[in-house]
Write a structure and sequence with these properties.
Radius of gyration: 28 Å
Largest sheet: none
Organism: Rohdeia mirabilis
Number of strands: 0
Pfam family, one: SpoIIM
Keywords: Membrane, Transmembrane, Transmembrane helix
Protein name: Stage II sporulation protein M
InterPro entries: SpoIIM-like
Length: 317
Amino acid sequence: MNRRRFLTVRQPDWQRFAATVKGLRRRKRDDATLAEFPSRFRALCQDLSLARHRRYGLGVTNQLNDLVQDGHNLLYGQRRSPLSGAARFLLIDFPREVRADAGLFWICTLLFFAPFLLLTLAGAVAPEWVLAVVGPEQRAQLASSFGGPKIVRDAESDVFMFGFYVWNNVGIDFRIFAGGIAFGLGTLFFLIFNGITLGAAFGYVIHADLGPSFFAFTAGHGSLELMAIPVAGMAGLKLAQGIIAPGRSSRSHALRARAGQAVRLLAGAATMTFMAAFVEAFWSASPVPHEVKYVVGALGWIVVLCFLAFGGRGAAR
């Protein structure tokens, strides 16, 4: 194909591409245009490569180069910084990931919260069940922490406790997640086990009349910490799905595909737990009146539940 025929055949497509770029810049877009844009951009790149190879002249190559540059900017956009990418994931993509498999979320929520609530209520109506789970050492620890005079920590102690809460609580999320490798049995065990142990602790403080101090302490960070556990369970069961039900893919391929989803869910759960540790270290033990902590805790539950239910809706994908 000589230069004249090349221009005759291809120039109408270039003009249409330029008009499309102009329309997209003015926010005039439709699904058909967006669907065709990548293939038309690739064809333009091929034309530029051919024009350079056959030396059709600077006029042609410069025209094509400008169009390719405009198309590239529209197609790929400006690169996000790592910080903005992380913020988009946490605020938009993460709640979408949770809602994308709502059935699995509700299963994990039931497995954790059912024993948790049962053992919490048992503290008032059947304390023998609670005392069978909470040993003497844990009872003494709860009594000294919430039954005696309020101890005000200094800033250094707050930082130390922040590190301890991160290590302990994020570790719970990772154990729940890692249990998915054992065909999901480990994840199921840790969800139920944590529901029982945490519920028993809540039930014991009700039975021992330690509730006011304990619930004021846990109110601020409880929503983040407790809701992170079912999300970590989702991550573990995603891994198990790749092993147990690979579908038409090989088991290794299905596991790799599920691992990406699982790691994203785990990252979101770990972030929630990290935030809970921050609140627990620097707010929960502060000498703020109990009534204020209860109000903040109630608002925290509303924010967390609304975030998981509505976060990312309406945002561009």
